[in-house]
Design brief:
The protein is of the alpha/beta class. The chain contains 12 helices and 7 strands. The N terminus is likely disordered.
Length: 301
């Protein structure tokens, strides 16, 4: 098998653009943060009990391996000791990380974890990247070999593909939209304008998809809203599902249609602002790899 080369964040570290996003510690926790974290953990544990047959067993095992059922907000130093045997680590990041840098970190087996925790007023849905979503939703699956290999394969491909103007506009508008939504007094006129402009970019990408936009759809329907059918029963493991009790209930109670992951999936946009009306399932991780290999990219080299 040909060795795939990809950029390393450890090359020319001083000038690395990643430095502007990485921080050594989480943001100082407020009293409200501890309440939000406890509530998030209790929701996940409740879903384990209430929807036991629908939770992908290795996800639950990874959750317990990381000690996330503890109601105290974990420190990444402790988390990284538990990730060390599988060769991964987590770094705190600030803000909305561009897709290229996000992929570059994953390609180097580093999972970016938001240093910020959602405020209580945004408990059910956080527009901004969130510590709880990353820790509770994403990290448990790293203990599944097939999952972390798939994640790295995706990241290597995403880190190498060319970034188009529309990709850059997607990041710029999304970052601006998140920033405005998170304001204490958001300007809804500005939010409306940003949303309209972002939808126009999405429309253009639907008509003429960039490589990165296709990879983003793959990421959404696998790592965020991933479902594996086990003996005809859907087992959820995607971070956006398992970290949200409402999303979990939406799928486990049959409110969302569950259809097979196919070529159409990679033409379907992911709306992170609403409960999903449809999700896509596979029967094993090799199916994900099959569709990932079909995504052709033009490298930056």
């Amino acid at each position: 098998m040909k060795q795939v080369k990809y950029p390393s964040i450890f090359e020319s570290a001083e000038s690395s653009p990643i430095n502007q996003f990485i921080r050594t510690t989480a943001l100082a926790h407020k009293k409200e943060d501890y309440l939000v974290w406890k509530k998030m953990v209790k929701n996940v544990v409740e879903s384990f009990n209430k929807y036991a047959g629908f939770i992908y067993p290795p996800f639950k095992e990874g959750f317990q391996n990381l000690g996330l059922d503890n109601l105290s907000i974990p420190d990444l130093k402790t988390v990284n000791k538990k990730l060390a045997p599988i060769g991964w680590q987590a770094f705190y990041v600030t803000g909305f990380v561009p897709a290229g840098i996000y992929a570059l970190m994953l390609a180097n087996q580093i999972f970016p974890v938001s240093a910020a925790l959602r405020p209580l007023k945004h408990f059910d849905y956080s527009a901004a990247p969130d510590l709880a979503h990353d820790l509770l939703g994403h990290l448990p699956m790293l203990f599944v070999k097939e999952f972390r290999e798939l994640l790295k394969n995706w990241a290597v491909k995403a880190a190498q593909c060319k970034i188009t103007f529309l990709d850059e506009e997607t990041y710029r508008l999304t970052a601006a939209l998140i920033k405005e939504k998170e304001q204490d007094n958001p300007d809804y006129r500005k939010i409306n304008i940003l949303t309209q402009n972002l939808n126009k970019v999405y429309d253009q990408l639907n008509d003429n998809p960039s490589e990165l936009s296709i990879l983003a759809k793959f990421y959404g329907w696998s790592f965020e809203f991933g479902v594996i059918k086990n003996d005809k029963t859907p087992n959820i493991f995607g971070a956006a599902i398992v970290s949200s009790l409402k999303e979990t209930e939406n799928i486990c109670l049959g409110k969302a249609k569950i259809t097979e992951f196919d070529d159409y999936t990679l033409k379907t946009g992911v709306n992170y602002t609403n409960l999903q009306e449809k999700v896509f399932y596979v029967t094993n991780f090799e199916i994900y790899n099959h569709f990932l290999k079909k995504i052709k990219i033009t490298t930056n080299e």
